Amino acid sequence: MSDATAEPVDMLNIPYKGLLSISIMLATIMQVLDTTIANVALPSMRGSLGASQDQITWVLTSYIVASAIITPVTGWLSDRFGLRQIFIVSAAGFVVASMACGMASSLNEMVAFRVLQGLFGACLVPLSQTVLLDINPRERHGQAMAIWGMGVMLGPIIGPTLGGWLTENWGWRYVFYVNLPVGILAIIGMIAFLPKTPPKVRRFDFFGFAMLAIAIGALQMVLDRGQAENWFQSTEIWIETGLFISGLWVFGIHIRNARDPFISLHVLKDKNLLTALALSALVGAMVLGGSALLPAMLQDVLGYTASRSGLIMAPRGFGTMVAMMIYGRLSNRIDSRIAILLGLSLTAWSMHMMTGFSVDMGEQPIIMTGIIQGFGLGLVFVPLSTLAYATLESRFRAEAAGVFNLVRNIGSSVGISLLSTVLAWNIATNRTEMTAKLVEDGPRLADIAEKTGFGHQILVFLVNSEISLQAAMISYLDDFKLMMIVTIALMPLVLVMRKPGAMKVSPPPADAGH
Fold first, then answer.
1. Could you list the residue ranges forming a coiled coil in this record (predicted)?
2. Which range has the top average pLDDT, 122-136, 283-297, 497-511?
């Protein structure tokens, strides 16, 4: 039930929408940035905190797991305590936890503070999406999601480059301290411009939350530690997989029968949202997961430095930003589904071009495919975010946004783990086959040594290096081909979605909390 003493807020007619949008997007960029900015600082952290290579990965894992578990709680928290209150507390807690991470003196402290970062930061992205949809009329949702999409995509693009620069010039602690000025500006803006919304008395489904938390936490552990533990040859991975399956199974049964489930069935029955969830997860798995492999290919196979790799990949982000701005201006004139299909087509085309990469190519093919793929991504994620909520009542947006962002993040995690595993398996297989072929059909090393004058050991080293290089490159091309096939296979899903102009929007009930 709604609070009888509080007046409902007309979010469409609040003042200073522009300044409020800037404030909430600063909070969003701050949170998204922290998912990638710490990666390049791990080697420096390891020495400072006295951690091993295996232990230091918990700096990333702890943040991801904590954030994933809390993200779907966003809807309940904003209903129960008010959207404004939760948004400000989340941003303030994230800033304080960031400062604590920068001052950590041991691995245990760092992991504990990263957990707090994940807990407070989990609500920032879905709440920013909710606010932008609430303060803009339906005909401007495309432009609002373009702004939101640019913020969400900006973090992963500039995160590694900014993290590397800060670590090299100021030290790894400033990777976390950089959140202080950004967070303070965001909090001041939200206090000044975000109106207070009345809370709703809503029972918390502890059992449903516990089951979903177990499933999400176990899945993230499997994805983060699977490759290092050799997947299902590890008892730990089997246990975590069992926890994921059983937790998800019990949660599914529970929400079908519970009177007030943790996630409303109204959210899970909306066809547009469900289709968007599937597309977001799969596109995230293939494209965003694949983007995590590209820096490794540039540095390990092509021999670029980390800073050079960042510069070469920067045009990809430029393409994304341009596409989002174009769609934001034309969103009322074109069918969002056509934009998504065009974006998927461009993405698949860029991946097809990437299957032609070679170890002796220049920078131009990488930059060109990056721009095309980035442009395609911009035409996918913005209209997809718009269509996801097009048939959903506004009172369910915060809850749906939590689920949407959770599924998108899980899809990216699955993609990184899947593509990394396929890559490692293909490298081993290709290397074995190439070595066998060389031994069977190639010239004898003794003959080559006699003609070239190189010693036997030097020749073995050179041949082994070349085989490893070629095997790795072929394996990356195989991953690009897999990504292309999956992207093409996603296109029919777009036709299932309904465009905003074709739907009837249900009026809000007299008692929204009934």
1. none
2. 122-136
Are 208 and 69 in contact by the 8 Å Cβ rule? The answer is no
Whole-angstrom distance, CA of residue 127 vs CA of residue 131: 6
The DSSP string of 289-300 is HHHTTHHHIIII
Backbone region of residue 261 per phi and psi (left: phi > 0; alpha: psi in -120 to 50; beta: other values): beta
Sign of the Cα pseudo-torsion (144, 118, 170, 88, in order): positive
Mean pLDDT of all residues in the chain?
Answer: 78
DSSP 8-class letter at 2: B
Residue in the structure block whose two tokens are 């003042």: 15
pLDDT category, 95, cuts 50, 70, 90? Answer: very high
pLDDT at position 451: 57
Range ranked top by mean pLDDT from 122-131, 265-274, 498-507: 122-131
CA 188 to chain centre: 27
Residue 100: pLDDT band (50, 70, 90) is: very high
Backbone dihedral angles phi then psi of residue 355, each to the nearest 5 degrees: -70, -10
- Binning the chain into helix, strand and coil, the percentages to the nearest 5 are 80, 0, 20
3-class secondary-structure state, position 200: strand
pLDDT at 193 over 80: yes
Per the CB < 8 A criterion, the answer to whether 360 and 97 are in contact is no
Strand partners, 200: 2
Alpha-carbon dihedral sign for residues 342, 344, 350, 355: negative
Highest mean pLDDT among 152-156, 208-212, 416-420: 208-212
Longest dimension (CA), the chain: 94
Token reading at 412: 């990216």
- pLDDT confidence of residue 120: 92
What tokens appear for 427 in the block?
Answer: 């490298």
User: How many residues appear in the chain?
Assistant: 514
> Could you give the CA distance from residue 482 to residue 351 in angstroms, rounded to a whole number?
9
Contacts of 121 (CB under 8 A, 6+ apart): 31, 34, 67, 90, 94, 97
